[in-house]
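testing teh design pipeline on a random one, pls ignore if ur not involved
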C-alpha cells in the first residue's frame, strides 16, 4: 500500500490535490473558529445523541424524545423512561407540552399517548387514529386550549385533523377542514386554528439576531444581513437538526440527530475554542489579542478565532509580550522573539535554571527562577536577589508595594520594590495550605490562594478564610482579580466566585468545564474588554462579565409524599409518628429544572442549625424523641440563591400507648374498677358464703324436720298401726279368730321397710335425673297402693331428661309421696293418673277420681302446707284443684 501511495504521489495532479488538502487542513486547524454553543452529548451523561424532539412542560422541566426513550434531567443526572421502566416503546418521534399536566407524545409504530409529567406515567392511548398514519402535532393558533393532531389515511393519502382539548385529555375530537378559509373548526363551527401551523418553523429571534435553519446548519442574521453560518465547523453539535425550541428562561435548545444538544444561553454566554491542553504556563491580553502559552505552543486568539499557533520549544515555561517583542523563559535561559511580520528568534540569554515568571518594567527584565531566587537583567547585566525563606519560586506577582513570590512548599513572601521581605505568610500565619497557587494584592488587602482555599490579609492580619472544605467547590485557586466595577472574583479549578459582602457567591450556572474530568487550569482578565479568558483541559473559553448574570431562579421546594414503614401518609392530616418508628421518609420534588444544575437541599428541625440532605430529595428519620416538631426545607441553587418550602411541615412524635395520658387515665379507671370489683367480689363471696352457710344450716334443719315429718307421718303411723295390731293379736285367745291377721302385721312391716328404703335412697343419691326419679316413684306407688284396689295409670313425655340435685329430687319425691298418702287416706278413689312432662320446664300431674273436697271450706292442713313449702324450696309451684269428681295436684317448675 505504501509503495502504491508513493507511486501515485509522483503524479502532479495528486501533488496538487494533496497540497490543497493540506493547506485547507492547516488553515482550518490554525484558524479555528469559536463556538457559541454549549454542547451536551453522551460524554456528559446524555443517554442518547439521537434526539427527535424536545418540549418544556408546565413545571419548566425539559423533556427529550430519543431513540432510547423519554429523557429528562433531575437530581443532577439524566433520567430515561424506556421499555424497561414501563414505556410501550423507545422511539419518541413527536412531542408537545399541554402546559397543564403533561405531554402529548407519539411513539413510533405504537400510537399517540398522553403522558403525565408529575406522576411520570402514561394516562391514555388514543385509539381513534389507529387506522391512520400519524404525521404531526402542533399548537392551535386560534384557540390555545387545543392541540392539533394531523394524520393521513393510508388508502387515499387524505389528511385528517383531530383536536386535543387540554381540559378533556381523554378524547380526540375530529375537526372539519374548510378549504376556502384554510381553517380547522369543531363540529359547532368554532374555528380553532388554520393550517399554517404545519408549515416548517425555521426562524427564531435570539439576542438581536435572527437564526434561520437550513441544510448546512443555522444562518445568523442581523438587520436581515447574514453574519455567519453556525455549523459543526464552529461548534454546532451536528448539522442534522431535528428541533429548535426557545425555553422559558430565554435559552435556545437545538436538538440534533447524532450530536446531542447545542445550547445558546441568554445569560452567561461564552465563546469557546476546543483545544486539548496538558499544561498552561501563562496567558496575557495585549491589544485585544489573547496570548496563551501551553505545552510549548503559543496560541494567538483574535476576533473569535485562533488566529495563529506557534510552536516555540518544549521546555517553554513563561513568557512576556512588550510591543512586538516576545520573551520566552525556559530551562536554558531567556529567548527573545519578534512577533511581526512573522515569528523569529532574535537572541538567547543563557541561564542555567528554569524561569517561572517574567515581568518587564522600563528597561529591566525581572524574572523568578526555580531554585535561584529573583534575577534582574538590565543593560545586559544580571543581578540575583535571594531571601531566607525560599528561593524555589513557582510564581511572581506585582503588587502596589512591590512583588509577591509564591511556593508550593513554603507559602508566600511579600517583597518591596527592592526585593526585600516585608512579610512572610505560611500555614502558621493563617494560610489554608503552604501550597500557594495565586496571590493578589491591592491597597492594604492581600489575597493568597492555595490548593485548599483563600486567606485574606488586611495590614498583615488575617480577616477572612474561605476553605475548600466549606465555602469553595474545587480544590485549587487558579486566579484572583478585581474587575473594572471594583468587584473581586476568584477562579478555582471548578467554579467562578464573585465576592458579595463578606462571602463569595458561586456562579455554578456558569458552565466552565464540559464534564467531571475536565478542570480549569488558568485564567486571565482584560479590564478593557471586561472579558475573562478561562483555560481548561479541553478548551479556551471567553466570558463577557457584563453578560455574566447569576441565576436567581431558585425553584421552590414542594413536598411530594411522606412514607411511614412503606405506607404513604396524607400530609393534610395531623401528622403523627411514634418514637419507635424506624422508617420515616419525607420525599420532595426535584428542584433542578436546568440541565447540569445541582441545587442542594437543606433541612432544619425546630431551632437546630441547617443541615444538608444526605440523599438527593429525601429525608429519613428514625426513633425521634417525643415532642412537637417543625421541619423547614430550603434549596440553594448553583449560584447561591435560596428558596424555601412555602409552609413548614409540623408533626408530632408520641410515645408508646402505655405512656399516653389517655391510656394512663384509662388504666387508672380500669385499675380502680378492677380493685373495686375485686374487693366487692371478695365481700360478695364472703356474704354468699355466709348465706350458703346459713342456707346449709337451714337446709339441714329443714331436712331434719322433713325426716321428722316423714317418720311421724309415714313410719310413725305404720308403727302405731303395727303396735295396735300386735296388741289386738295378744288380746285374742289363740283358739279364737281375730279381725287382725298376721298378714296385716306383715304388710305394715313391709310398708315401714319400703319407706325406710325410700328415705335411704333419697338421702343416699347425690344426683339423679327425671327418668330415674320417675322410675323409682312408679315402683313405690305400685307397692304402696297394691292393697287398696286402686288402678294406677302412668303417662310420661320426657323430652328433656335433665339432671336433678338431691334436694330437688327429694322434694319432688316427698310431694308425690304425700299426694299418694292423701289419696290412700282420704280420697276413696279407684283410679289414679300420674303424668310427668319434661320439655323446657317440668310439670307433674297426679289426678284421682275420689270424692274430692270443697276448696273454700278446706282448711289447710299440715300435709298440704308441707307440700307447698317443699315446692317453694325447690323452685316449683304447687297447685291443687278438687270437686266432686276427684282431685288434681299440679307441680309446675318455675
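output:
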Amino acid at each position: 500500500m505504501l509503495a502504491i501511495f508513493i507511486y501515485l504521489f509522483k503524479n502532479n495532479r495528486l501533488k496538487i490535490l494533496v497540497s490543497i488538502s493540506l493547506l485547507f487542513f492547516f488553515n482550518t486547524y490554525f484558524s479555528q473558529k469559536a463556538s457559541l454553543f454549549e454542547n451536551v452529548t453522551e460524554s456528559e451523561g446524555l443517554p442518547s445523541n439521537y434526539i427527535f424532539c424536545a418540549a418544556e412542560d408546565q413545571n419548566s422541566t425539559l423533556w427529550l424524545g430519543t431513540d432510547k426513550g423519554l429523557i429528562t434531567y433531575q437530581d443532577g443526572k439524566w433520567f430515561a423512561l424506556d421499555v424497561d421502566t414501563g414505556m410501550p416503546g423507545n422511539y419518541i418521534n413527536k412531542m408537545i407540552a399541554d402546559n397543564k399536566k403533561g405531554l402529548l407524545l407519539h411513539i413510533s409504530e405504537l400510537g399517540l399517548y398522553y403522558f403525565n409529567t408529575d406522576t411520570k406515567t402514561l394516562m391514555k392511548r388514543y385509539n381513534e387514529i389507529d387506522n391512520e398514519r400519524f404525521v404531526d402535532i402542533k399548537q392551535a393558533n386560534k384557540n390555545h386550549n387545543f392541540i392539533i393532531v394531523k394524520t393521513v389515511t393510508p388508502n387515499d393519502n387524505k389528511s385528517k385533523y383531530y383536536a386535543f382539548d387540554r381540559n378533556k385529555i381523554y378524547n380526540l375530537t375530529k375537526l372539519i377542514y374548510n378549504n376556502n378559509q384554510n381553517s380547522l373548526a369543531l363540529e359547532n363551527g368554532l374555528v380553532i386554528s388554520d393550517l399554517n401551523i404545519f408549515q416548517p418553523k425555521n426562524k427564531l429571534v435570539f439576542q438581536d439576531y435572527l437564526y434561520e435553519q437550513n441544510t448546512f446548519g443555522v444562518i445568523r442574521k442581523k438587520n436581515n444581513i447574514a453574519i455567519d453560518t453556525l455549523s459543526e465547523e464552529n461548534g454546532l453539535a451536528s448539522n442534522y437538526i431535528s428541533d429548535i425550541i426557545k425555553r422559558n428562561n430565554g435559552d435556545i435548545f437545538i436538538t440534533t440527530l447524532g450530536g446531542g444538544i447545542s445550547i445558546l444561553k441568554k445569560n452567561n454566554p461564552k465563546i469557546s475554542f476546543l483545544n486539548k491542553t496538558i499544561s498552561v504556563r501563562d496567558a496575557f491580553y495585549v491589544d485585544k489579542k489573547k496570548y496563551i502559552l501551553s505545552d510549548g505552543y503559543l496560541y494567538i486568539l483574535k476576533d473569535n478565532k485562533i488566529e495563529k499557533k506557534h510552536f516555540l520549544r518544549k521546555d517553554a515555561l513563561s513568557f512576556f509580550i512588550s510591543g512586538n517583542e516576545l520573551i520566552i523563559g525556559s530551562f536554558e535561559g531567556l529567548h527573545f522573539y519578534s512577533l511581526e511580520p512573522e515569528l523569529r528568534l532574535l537572541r538567547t540569554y543563557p541561564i542555567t535554571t528554569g524561569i517561572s515568571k517574567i515581568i518587564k518594567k522600563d528597561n529591566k527584565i525581572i524574572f523568578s527562577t526555580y531554585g535561584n531566587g529573583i534575577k534582574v537583567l538590565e543593560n545586559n547585566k544580571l543581578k540575583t536577589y535571594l531571601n531566607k525563606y525560599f528561593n524555589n519560586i513557582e510564581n511572581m506577582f506585582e503588587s502596589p508595594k512591590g512583588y509577591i513570590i509564591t511556593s508550593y512548599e513554603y507559602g508566600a513572601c511579600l517583597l518591596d520594590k527592592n526585593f526585600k521581605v516585608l512579610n512572610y505568610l505560611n500555614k502558621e500565619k493563617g494560610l489554608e495550605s503552604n501550597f500557594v497557587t495565586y496571590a493578589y494584592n491591592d491597597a492594604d488587602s492581600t489575597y493568597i490562594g492555595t490548593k485548599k482555599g483563600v486567606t485574606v490579609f488586611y495590614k498583615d492580619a488575617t480577616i477572612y478564610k474561605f476553605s475548600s472544605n466549606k465555602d469553595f467547590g474545587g480544590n485549587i485557586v487558579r486566579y484572583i482579580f478585581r474587575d473594572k466595577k471594583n468587584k473581586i472574583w476568584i477562579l478555582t479549578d471548578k467554579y467562578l466566585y464573585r465576592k458579595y459582602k463578606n462571602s463569595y457567591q458561586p456562579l455554578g450556572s456558569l458552565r466552565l468545564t464540559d464534564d467531571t474530568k475536565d478542570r480549569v487550569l488558568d485564567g486571565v482578565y482584560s479590564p478593557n474588554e471586561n472579558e475573562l479568558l478561562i483555560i481548561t483541559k479541553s478548551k479556551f473559553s471567553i466570558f463577557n462579565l457584563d453578560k455574566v448574570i447569576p441565576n436567581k431562579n431558585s425553584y421552590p421546594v414542594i413536598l411530594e409524599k411522606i412514607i411511614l414503614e412503606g405506607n404513604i401518609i396524607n400530609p393534610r392530616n395531623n401528622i403523627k409518628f411514634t418514637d419507635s418508628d424506624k422508617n420515616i421518609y419525607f420525599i420532595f420534588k426535584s428542584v433542578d429544572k436546568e440541565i447540569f444544575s445541582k441545587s442542594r437541599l437543606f433541612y432544619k428541625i425546630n431551632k437546630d442549625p441547617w443541615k444538608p440532605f444526605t440523599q438527593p430529595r429525601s429525608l429519613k428519620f428514625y426513633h425521634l424523641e417525643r415532642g412537637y416538631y417543625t421541619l423547614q426545607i430550603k434549596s440553594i441553587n448553583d449560584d447561591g440563591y435560596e428558596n424555601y418550602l412555602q409552609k413548614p411541615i409540623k408533626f408530632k412524635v408520641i410515645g408508646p400507648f402505655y405512656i399516653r395520658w389517655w391510656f394512663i387515665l384509662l388504666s387508672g379507671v380500669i385499675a380502680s374498677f378492677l380493685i373495686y370489683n375485686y374487693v366487692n367480689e371478695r365481700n360478695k363471696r364472703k356474704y354468699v358464703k355466709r348465706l350458703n352457710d346459713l342456707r346449709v344450716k337451714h337446709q339441714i334443719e329443714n331436712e331434719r324436720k322433713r325426716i321428722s315429718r316423714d317418720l311421724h307421718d309415714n313410719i310413725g303411723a305404720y308403727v302405731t298401726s303395727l303396735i295396735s295390731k300386735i296388741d289386738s293379736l295378744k288380746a285374742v285367745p289363740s283358739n279364737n279368730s281375730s279381725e287382725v291377721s298376721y298378714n296385716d302385721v306383715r304388710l305394715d312391716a313391709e310398708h315401714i321397710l319400703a319407706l325406710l328404703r325410700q328415705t335411704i335412697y333419697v338421702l343416699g343419691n347425690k344426683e339423679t335425673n327425671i327418668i330415674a326419679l320417675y322410675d323409682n316413684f312408679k315402683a313405690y306407688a305400685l307397692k304402696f297402693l297394691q292393697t287398696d284396689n286402686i288402678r294406677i295409670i302412668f303417662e310420661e313425655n320426657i323430652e328433656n331428661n335433665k339432671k336433678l340435685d338431691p334436694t330437688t329430687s327429694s322434694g319432688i319425691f316427698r310431694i308425690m309421696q304425700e299426694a299418694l298418702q292423701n289419696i290412700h287416706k282420704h280420697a276413696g278413689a279407684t283410679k289414679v293418673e300420674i303424668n310427668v312432662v319434661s320439655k323446657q320446664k317440668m310439670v307433674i300431674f297426679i289426678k284421682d277420681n275420689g270424692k274430692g273436697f270443697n276448696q273454700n271450706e278446706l282448711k289447710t292442713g299440715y300435709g298440704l302446707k308441707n307440700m307447698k313449702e317443699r315446692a317453694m324450696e325447690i323452685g316449683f309451684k304447687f297447685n291443687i284443684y278438687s270437686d266432686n269428681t276427684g282431685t288434681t295436684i299440679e307441680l309446675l317448675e318455675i
